[in-house]
Design brief:
The complex is a heterodimer of chains A (107) and B (332).
Chain A: E1 4-6, H1 11-17, E2 22-27, H2 32-47, E3 53-58, H3 63-68, E4 76-81, E5 84-90, H4 95-101, H5 103-106
Chain B: E1 4-10, H1 14-25, E2 31-33, E3 53-54, E4 64-65, H2 66-79, E5 83-85, E6 89-93, E7 99-103, E8 113-120, E9 124-126, H3 134-137, E10 142-143, H4 146-149, E11 157-161, H5 165-174, E12 180-184, H6 194-202, E13 206-209, E14 212-218, E15 225-230, E16 236-240, E17 243-246, E18 250-252, E19 283-285, H7 297-318, H8 323-327
Parallel strand pairs in B: 1-2, 1-8, 2-5, 8-19, 10-17, 11-12, 11-17, 12-13
Antiparallel strand pairs in B: 3-4, 6-7, 7-8, 9-18, 14-15, 15-16
Helix pairs in contact in B: 1-2, 1-7, 5-6
The chains are: A alpha/beta (107), B alpha/beta (332).
Chain lengths: 107, 332
Amino acid sequence: MAPTTVSDATFEEEIAAASEPVLVDFWAEWCGPCKMIAPVLEEIAEEYQGKLRIAKLNVDDNPQTARRFDVMSIPTLIVFQDGQPKKRMVGAKGKNALLADLAEFVG
Amino acid sequence: MTEVRNVVVVGSGPAGLTAAIYTARANLSPLVIEGELSSTTDQPGGQLMLTTDVENFPGFVEGIMGPDLMGNFRAQAARFGAEFLTDKVTRIDFSSRPYGLWVGDPSAPEPSYRTSSVIVATGARSLMLGLPQEEQLLGHGLSTCATCDGFFFRGQRIGVVGGGDSAIEEAIFLTRFAEKVTILHRRDQLRASKIMQERAFKNDKIDFLWNVRVTDLKGDGRLEGIGLEDVQTGERSDLELGGLFVAIGHRPNTDLFRGVLDMDDAGYLVTQPGSTATNIPGVFACGDVQDHTYRQAITAAGSGCMAAIDAERWLEATGAAPPDIAETPTDW
């Protein structure tokens, strides 16, 4: 499944409703490293369909959620499981490094 | 044994991609090992990927965004048939020809690539302060990327450590968000270019603390302030800050070549005067990895072009070039 888009309004509902872990990508249009990891996240979303969902949250448009999770640097990736934040990764990295960090969720 | 390539370019900033454009147009089918994604300057596209407006690259009257410029370089190289691998070189073997390059597991018995010539364009990366709390606070108020993180410091007081062009550029950019930006510099004058200095001095939101050194980072889980030492008097003080950006210079990415390629005390590769040749025949170096003097996108691109021409001539001279290259002088 391609990454979905979440907002301040839909965040709670979408994260709580998911049966699989959800990786939320906090990003913005003006962030170069965010743009570079976008295709990597798309690939992971396709390859790990059913195991991991990927949701994108634009921090420009959705400052409340970004503030709530204390996002101060983007890209920040937070994995939510059963509605709770379980793992946080700051900064862009390559696919292999990202998958190694996500091993506990997609392994 | 793996196929032997004509030329492999290691690195993909202005130097590496210009070398790729020229070697691709010379029918040398270059492979560019472009590096791995990161939020540091050590990433595909290099240091310009973390900048905004590039105003001094000739040909762009109104300036161009750094990432867009590098996207153009890459697309231009791809148009002439350069191949790209988004990975890092983990090991090299320049002891016998053809040379070996490894990506992934460095202990693999066989190199991932064999090549007659290598163009090293691995660039330089930002230096960090080297303070113990640094790793923990990175992304939590401490940043090396103003364009990535400046947005999160709206209305706050931000510090920028450094006195060169990149420090001033970051400080000016950060005034879009911050209430105040304080430039912290260990000398009593800036190293930045005159035009950047003037812009900083004219900006009401920017002030300066001269002759200071950052001694510690304060805050538990999130940066709240810094400790400073006056380098002349030794006097110590604290400064409350919402964010701290570090732009104190660069170090060349040459760890991979230590003990193999000649380098100076600071780790920059040494090339023969008037050439991009290193101490190993067929291995050429261009861009910031061998230049601690100019360090501009345009000088990096220029030396990338030189490396491509040097590599092509070397391949011709040693007979390692494919026959159609050796017989046809290239019209540059």
